[in-house]
Structures are given as structure tokens and as C-alpha cells.
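Next comes this protein:
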Amino acid sequence: MNGRLKAAVIEHFNAIDAKEVEVIQPLWSNYGTISRWQLVGAEVNFIVVKRISVPSTTHHPRGWDTPISHQRKVRSYEVEMAWYKGLASKTTSDCKIPKCYFSNQIGKEQVIVLEDLDSAGFNQRRTQLTIKEAKVCLRWLAHFHATFMFEKAENLWQEGCYWHLDTRPDEWEAMQSGWLKANAYKIDDRLKACQFQTLVHGDAKVANFCFSNDLKTVAAVDFQYVGGGCGIKDVVYFLGSCLSEDDCETHETELLDYYFEILKQETKAVDADALEKEWRSMCSIAWADFTRFLLGWMPTHQKVNGYSLQQVEKAKEMV
């Protein structure tokens, strides 16, 4: 255990002792760890500590060990620290995130000390969702996008989402020639040109949502790729992460209707009808944008399926 980190935690919480009790998971490509700590003699019993330590040598599980990949990861952790120090305070209980107790450079590590969501009542995790459960996360996204409508991405990614084209030239180069590769920048330009811009979570997959015991509310984690953008990017990526191909096709309209119903209720200061019209028109474009990333990164991925390719065909009529 980093002695300076332990001392900083004990001092911040006025605790008698602090100890790591569980490694929740390593960070991608071994850039650090997320662990649960127990405090003794403090008002807070448990905390989650995210420790970022840039390795001297990197190993990507799919072989993407490039300088661009490395710099993107380093930047992503800088963005997450900036998020918790800045705009995170504007979130509400309707788009719950873990409270950040403090974040700092301690020795050679960047450290983010967060509320333990399990202790806060969000201890349920899912890999697949029912339609009802998916709506709970869509409600979170709608509130998040409404809260940050037209917010400037200060110290965050100017264009959020981990697959954003400007940060993925290696994957674009790896794509086979075809319509999607040839039109990748046109697709990106369409999303950037949206009138209604907000902050996007940037990695709104089901694994980054923590459910309450009754599965009626959620909190979200992992803000490494939060930044500016069209909110529909979060929506289509989320749906692809938690629903089967058949469910996406069968329930697309129902789920989008629900998301926009909540979004319009929460965006009273803007032309809500114009917002819905624009973002609905971007659905296929956003699907095509994410599929572009997958076809370069891992073309055999299960998310490259009949539904996502159908959305690419729809995008062809709009680009």
C-alpha cells in the first residue's frame, strides 16, 4: 500500500486507520486499480479508491499498443480528475454519481477517492437488461443530458466518447476499404454539427451503471471519456451494450420515445421539439459512428450484427 496515500486518506476522513479490503478491478491495460477501502474510526465506513499509475511498458489485450493509444489513456484519466473537481458537482440525484471526496497526485500516482456506491445502496450489477431496467438507465441519461445542455466542456474532451474518430486514427487505418471508412469523417462532421450539444458520459455501457436493490434507480461511474457531443451517442451505445439484437429492433421506438419523453420534460429552456427532431435524426448516424470504430478495432465483435449494419444502411441515405 502507498504509505502517502494511506496517510492522506486517514487525514481527510479523520480516521484511526484505513486499509484496502478488496480489489474491485484492474484498470484497462494495467494502468492502475480500483479498490474498496475500509476506514476505522471515521464517519464513512467504506470508500472506493481509483489509483492511476502509468506503466513503463504497456500491454493492450487486443494489441493496440501505440503512442496514440497510450496518450489517449493518459488524457482520459486527466479528464476524469478534472470532471470530479469541476462539473461533477452539477449532477443531481436523478443522474446520481459517486461523491468525490478528493482527487490528487500522490507520489507517482493519480488518485481519485470516491463514495462507495455499494454502501450507498447501489450494489446491483447487470450485464443484460430487461426493457423495464433499460428505461431506468435511459432516465439517468436523459437527466444527465438535460443537466448539461449547452455546457462547455471545460478541461474535458471537447468531443466525448471513447470511440471518437479524432482519437482513433489507428483503428480507422485498420478498417477494410468500404463506404463506412470512406465516409467516417462525414459522419463525424454530422454529429459535431448538431445544434443541440450537451455533455455525454462517453462510455455509457451497462457495466458502468450500478443499480439499487429494487432496480428502480441507478448511479453511473467511469467518467474518463466525458465531454461535449450529441446525447444520442450515449443512448445508442448504451442500448447496444445491454440488449440483444432482436430487442434493439423490437423495442427501439418504445425506448427512444421514453428517453425523449424524460429529456423534453427536463429541458424547458430550449426548443424541446427541435431537440428531439435533431437527435432522433442522428440515431442511425450515431450507430454508424460506433460501428466504424468496431470494424477497425475488432470486426468480429458481437455488436457488429444485423441490427447495427441495418443502421449503417440507413445512415447511407443521410450522409
Remarks:
- Residues 131-316 form a domain with the Aminoglycoside 3'-phosphotransferase; Chain: A, domain 2 fold (CATH 3.90.1200).
- Residues 245-266 form the longest helix (22 residues).
- The two ends are 53 Å apart (CA to CA).
- The chain has a mean pLDDT of 95.
